[in-house]
Protein 1
Amino acid sequence: MPDSLIPSHGGYRKLKSFQLAQLAYDLTVSFVEHYIPRNSRTCDQMVQAARSGVQNIAEGSLASGTSKKTELKLTNVARASLEELRLDYEDFLRQRGYSLWQQDDPREAQFTEARCKTLEDVKTWVNGQRFGQGLSGQRGPSGRSGLSGQALSRPSIKSRSSTPVPEIAANAALILIRIASALLDRQLARLASDFEKEGGFTERLCRTRYKNRNLPHHPKLKESKI
């Protein structure tokens, strides 16, 4: 209801941006476990940046009932956290001589079309790339590739792609981050527009008070004064 003092809020789990940011977080935790020294500052920074992206989307959604300004601020923090995470993955690729896939790389389209929803889905796709299967690998009863979601660092025993596994995993994470960030950019634009047109909690409170103050008096109250 547009005139409701506290509108519907907190449905962050249905947001595609939240779902992708959460998947990027899960992938990052697995990634740093295999490829980043556990006691390094980079390990902590990547995990915290990924976590911040998820938590701030959720917190902003919950705060939106009484503060659109807070929702805007926290959604922007989530967007900034994902940007920090993106730079960490790009640094990893550059410093180790791996390739950063461009947006016209067919593997990006393949990963997007795979519509991975869980970390196991991503691991299955990464291992499919290792074996040169892409999207054409055989499917098992669950609908996933016949390969299981093995650990990202497990060596292959079949014909192997020339692309190193860390490169595939890092670029998969970057694709997730890029899509989530684009969705957050749209959210921020919509939130800013809504805030400009409708205001926030204070404006709704003023409208509600004004409306209640100008309601017609009850007939019985009028009769009692006659």
Protein 2
Amino acid sequence: MSRLKIALVANNIHFRGGMERYFAELATALCGDHEVHLFASEIDDVPRDKVTIHTVRTVKRPQLLLLLQYYWKSSNKLRSKDYDVVHTIGGITAKQNFVTAQYCQYAWGDTIHNVPGARNGITLYHEFMWRFGGFLEKRALTSNSTLRICANSKRTRSDLVRFYGCDPDKIDVIYNAVDAVRFNPANQRYRSQIRQRYGIPEAAVVVLFVGEYRRKGLITLIRALESLKEYNVHLLAVGRGDRKKYEALAAQHGITEQSTFAGPSRDVERIFGAADIFAFPTYYEPFGMVITEAMASGLPVVTTRNAGAAEMIEDGRSGFLIDRPHDAGELAQKLQVLVSDPDLRTRVGLEARTAAGDYSWSQLAQDTLEMYHKGLLDRT
């Protein structure tokens, strides 16, 4: 394939988050053979000597001002450049020719209004933000300048067609990759070290949650664990959220001593190695990179059918799926089966590792390049 001049445009590019990691990995895989330019407010975890960095400086808060500043500044920076590929995540700049949909704002809005429990904590400001973000997203995805769209799951592809009226023939489904070396059952060697870090008993069955507390369903998990108090279970929640609120909720359900709430971690692969079960009762998840990372780590996963990565799980064999993210009873039943049977945890974890496969970031980059060339060829 010919050498391309590629602009990757995102709010942030680094390893501390799913959407952020997507472009960090893609840039790393592409920069050896192509001229790669990165446009973001924060850029890390990339080979700086092989890419060109264009920092887009914005305020951190409020989110609306950040979005507006980024949109305006990135559009101005891109206007004076000539790129073969301008690849964005969603509608975050004025013009692009390739868009990755790691999310569908209108699908999240539909979830808020129609799934019990999903509206918890949602304010009028949140409502405005998903509507405004969805407007920009739809504008980018349906623009005549957009040659191809990359959806991270079949679920996302369906949402883009349903909520934005995107042409299904322009959408390529490219699952997010997983680093099967970094996320590996061998990380169990850090089990004692990580448990000591968080003050978790060695003998406890650790149910791990990784992600944004509210949208990913931590409330449902806390409620579910109340009914498992007879077992030696410990909740480890790693991610972003109102920690005091969730600590109070844990106290309300009588699991304070069996719960640990921590911020995001740069060595999350080691944390997977210290866990026994991964629980992720998310309300809305276009993909859910942490799901495949947990699977690659050899953990049995319990998640909702709402997650795009659930497409890779055979229910009861390589993981367990629940139908209702708000149903603590349904979640507790699935967890109880795993908590009470260590042999089953081992078998399901092995199947999960196999199901996660060996879809590498280099292969994702290759599939993305094919999408670029398909779109550029169609334009000519």
